[in-house]
Each structure stands twice: as C-alpha cells, then as structure tokens.
C-alpha cells in the first residue's frame, strides 16, 4: 500500500502560491499549468453532462468526496446548491478555506464518511476512488451509497485504463459492478478524455525511453524531493517534450467531441458514471 497520508499531505503543501487554483494538488503535480487547465476544462465538461443526467434540484444538498482544494465545491456553489466537502487530508481543506471557500469542510475518509444515513441528494467523487487502494474501494462506494437519500444520485468520474503507484483503475464493467453492489443502480455512463493524438505521442516517448533504458525514477509526485529546478536548469528534452504536448493536447481537445461520438466508450481513459439510489 502506498503511503497515502504522506503523498497527499506533500501535494497539498508543495504546490504553493504559484498554483492559485490548486490544480497541481489534485491533477498532475509535475505538469505545466496549461496542461492541468486543459484537463480541468475537459473534466468540467463531463461533470456538466453528469449533472444533466442527475436532474438535480435547486435546493439539493451535495457532498463532494475527496474535495481537495475545492474546485468542484466552487462550481456547485455557483449553481446555488448547498455543498459539503470531505477530504482525508487536512492540508487540502486548509488550502480550500484559505482560498475563501464558504461551505462546510470536514476531515474524513471515504471509507467511513462522518455523516448520517440518507443525508445528501447528490454525492460526487471526481478521480477520487481510483486513488483508494483496491481493497478499500468497495467500502468507499458503500459509504457513498449509504449517505445518499432514496432517489439521490452518485456521480463518479474515474480512471478506466492505466495503473500507477497511487492509481488503481478498473474496467467500466468492474466500476459498475462495484457500485451496484453498494446499493445504487446505473443510470448511464460515458467515455471521457480520449486525447488520442496526445496518447499516441506519449506512448511513443515511453517506448523510446524503455528501449533506451532511461525511464523515470519510481518516485511518487508530491513526495519529498529536491527543490524545483530554476528555468535555466530545466533539461532541453523536457522543454521540447512539453512544447510538443502542447500541440498534441490542442489537437486532441479539438478532436475530443468527435472521439466521444464515434469511438467506443472503453477507449477513453476515464469513465463518467451516474448511479441512482
């Protein structure tokens, strides 16, 4: 099991004032800000689609599990919804509060939510359960279903391909089976974040690095490490890599609506799942 407390605490503390929106703390810690902004924009589009499926009422009470620095809480509040955020990392909630977020923020684990049964109309978890070790994911989903009111909805946006030291994806059928076993029924699901041109480029780079036996060290982003490099110290290869990815991401984002309409849902990197209790 990876040291999750240390991992998320370090992410909360390491991004600093340069990351005013907090994206580095909850998305890709070592990526340029433009990349995290792109990913957030794509996730927001999926989130809006999910809310339409939920047909949420104006007076709904929403719980965002793994709320981090509060990026989804702000969007719920912009819609006039009552919101509560829960996160296992106190540092994340401190950053959310320091940013001026005015809603209830509670320290708690997804596997043991500190709320009464049937307390919320909507429970959301965006790229949260994928970071919980597999042995605890079913327990987290059961807790989310427990705090949902009858007729309420569960919105999940989770990884459906790829693994990592702190990432534990599942295939779509597996996510659906796990959530259904927790006591909710599937309303529908969509593939999200295909990014085909960008994935082709990244796959090519990883293949070249493996062949050259020059892969990255097996360290987790956010762990204690040397101070960030000054601009003049950044390797040229890294600069070129991100310059190319800026182009491939732009093309990918333009192509994304087409990919969602013509490609199989299973080809996406994430799945947006909507369940009802």
Question: Which structural traits does this protein have?
Answer:
277 residues, alpha/beta, globular, 9 strands, two-stranded antiparallel ribbon, Rossmann fold, 7-stranded mixed sheet, 9 helices, 2 domains
From N to C, what is the helix and strand string? Answer: HHHEHEHEEHEEEHEHHE
**Oligomeric status of the shown chains?**
single chain
Unreliable segments (pLDDT under 50, ≥5 consecutive)? 215-233
CATH topology of the largest domain, what is it called? Answer: Rossmann fold
Give the total of domains: 2
* Helix/strand structural class: alpha/beta
Question: Can I get a quick summary?
Answer:
The protein is an alpha/beta fold. The protein has helices at 4-14, 23-26, 33-54, 71-78, 90-98, 134-146, 172-181, 196-211, 236-262; strands spanning 61-65, 82-87, 104-107, 120-126, 148-159, 163-164, 167-168, 185-192, 270-276. The protein is built from nine helices and nine strands.
